[in-house]
Amino acid sequence: MVWRFNVLAHVALGVRLQRLAGEDRTGAVPLIMCLWNRPQRLGEVLRQLSVQEDAPPIRLILWNNKRQNDALYLREIEAFGAPGALASIEFYSSRWNVGGIARFIVAHGITRRSTPEPFLMLDDDQNVSSHFVRDLLDAFAPNTYAGFWAFVIVGNYWERAEAAPGQQATYVGTGGSVCDSSIVRERGFFTRLPGRFAFIEDLWTSAFAASRGWRVEKVDTPIELTLEDSNQYLAMIDLKQEFWEYLKTELAKGRAL
């Protein structure tokens, strides 16, 4: 399958990030965001991240899944620079749209230590508070995947209840989340994800982490969702339910995915 070949090739070979603003800074926390069809949102996201308080400097990494928008993004970043809490801004223009799994490809390429370390993820349709980064880092611990968009699934995929802060969740969305980078050092995270469900990386991450006994839970942080009518999940409503049934069957076998 083309998707599987492209993703595994990226994982094996790594990606060459282009630094567009700022510089390396010791202790900077990686924050990874995928770009697709909302170029008008980047300036506001940069502004919100630049005013983060009580947090380490941010190493912002942008993966663009739609090369036609490269020039728009590059102009926006050049005009903005990397002020305030943003230590640096790095950019990757992908030849293929590989969806949200790109965040984890990046995490695989930039984290090498054997000790647990966090990486953050954000979607470009989310407005966050000035303590967003602090909230996520406060929720981090080894073997943790936690985020704002979190649910306990009680039946089929769409039969679910919003998780309470700190509660173990069945599903955590990648947008507005923190994850222990050790998850991407497990080759199975990439090789065992069925190609048919490749764009449902959030449900995969939740189930993969839970099957290994990780904390998968809700983070208490205010996030406002915008432009929801442009979200890619709208084309995958039935596929998400199918994937959940597949994962339930696998998890019922009592072994790690």
List keywords for this structure.
8 helices, Spore Coat Polysaccharide Biosynthesis Protein SpsA, Chain A, 8-stranded mixed sheet, 257 residues, 3-stranded antiparallel sheet, globular, 13 strands, alpha/beta
Number of separate structural domains: 1
Content-based structural category:
alpha/beta
The averaged pLDDT comes out at 91
Q: What is the percentage of strand-forming residues?
A: 15-25%
Summarize the model shown:
By secondary structure, the chain is an alpha/beta fold. The protein has 8 helices and 13 strands.
What this model shows, in words?
The structure is a single chain. The chain has an eight-stranded mixed β-sheet, sandwiched between helices. It is globular. With 257 residues, it is of the alpha/beta class. The chain contains eight helices and 13 strands. The longest helix is centred in the last third of the chain and has 15 residues, at 237-251. The two termini are 20 Å apart. Helix 2 (42-50) packs parallel to helix 3. Helix 3 links the parallel strand 3 and strand 4.
